Amino acid sequence: MEKWRYIKEWDKLVTPEYGLAVDDTLPYSVAEKDSPPILHLYRFEPSAIVGKYQDIRAALKIDRCKELGIHYNRRSTGGGTVIMGPKAVALGFGISLKHPAMQGGIKGIFNTMSQILIRTLADFGIKGSFRPKNDLEVNGKKIAGLSASADVDDAILFHTSLLIDFDINLMLEIMNTPVEKIYDKGYSCFSERMTTMEKEIGEKIDVEVVMESLKKSFEKQFGVVFEEDELSDWEKQKVKWFDAKRYRDEKWIFSKRHPKYKMGEGLLKTPGGLLQVYISLAGGVIENLMITGDFFSTGEDINRLESNLKYTMVNRENIENSLRQIWKDDIIYGVDIPTLTTAILKASENCV
Amino acid sequence: MAKIEGYEMPDELYYHTEHSWARVEDGNVRVGMTDFFQQQAGAVVYVDLPDEDDDVEAGEVCGKIQTRKWIGKLVAPVGGTIIEVNEEVNEDNTLINKDPYNEGWILLIEPSNLDEDLGNLIHGDKVEEWIKSEIKRAEELKAQGGGGE
What we know:
By secondary structure, chain A is an alpha+beta fold. Helices cover 39% and strands 29% of the residues of chain A.
């Protein structure tokens, strides 16, 4: 049976610059040093980490992070902001796309990784499923986000974080969200859209047990055995390099190379009730959106619509296509696709 | 402007097999991604572009263009020095979708070996045959379930 490497750091919390530098090293080690695939499981000190292409100043209240002693940094993979802490498992995985286990390329790894996380959730009696574009959900609420970057030759780094417990109030404290104008609303908006393992089963969960389950899920998925390992000297040097050149470098953290970021709100009275859409745009693409109001629908359906709209170009044709993909009769009672599209476009026109 | 099975492929351009295009302008070469790429790949979500003054070789991957479906490579169709990067595309990535041959241009290169590099690109009568084979390849990929969400 093939042996893969497992680097486990469960007994301490690491800084973002260290954790992210180790993850960035994984695909290099696979591509340049012929390492077998490497799984890195660890936990961050309380940190806010934005995706590679985000505007960190638009995403986070940097001053508030400093006041509260929350680290902030930028990872090398795409996607949105994550708030990490002692009760969130961080996972980095480096593998070559040419590895026989990687049949489906980039798309394949998202499906494969979803299966692994779903298996781990099932170990705790939680029924998870993959929700396009890149979330793992439980009953329509997000529990993990997935991101990957093809970085070195054919080796890729895959990133995810699994929430065991989560402090929504802290998130609202340090993140700029389009719904922060009304704090209570912000809380309910996010608590209806996110969940955690502890929330799902109503009891405390030990982090190490989750890590062990993740490792076993990987072994089962790929038919391999993990051997606990440490970073080689070459890898330690590489980690130091990334730490200095990337994660301690203000130019990297405050990178100006990102699409123009704007947020806005749109209100529309409809026969089904008032539609309120909060939207954030990165360039001409929807980065995040929330649909609220006093209409009749289920949280699960609304969350799916929102997720499917992520990364859609802001124009009527694309938005309507995206809605049509998962629309069903009376998904929002009394509201049809063109009406919801109008509300979304209104929000995007109000963006500043 | 030639339209081949729904894809705009302007006659005056030179094409690299990785779907970047080259247009010669006053001795320099403007570079972008083809209409075929943007239609197949969907909305561009992020771009990773090189810096001005970087030297590139013909065929070198000098940037990434990420859509919801895949990470596309930006391959320099000709070698030389990058003298300008389209900052507008950095701010609104979807210009690559909206107007791939004009506002959505990506780089301007001062070429170092223009004639030889152009000779290695697809141009003129060969474009139609190439695009048709690319369409066929895309259909086969789709049938295998590839191509992403």
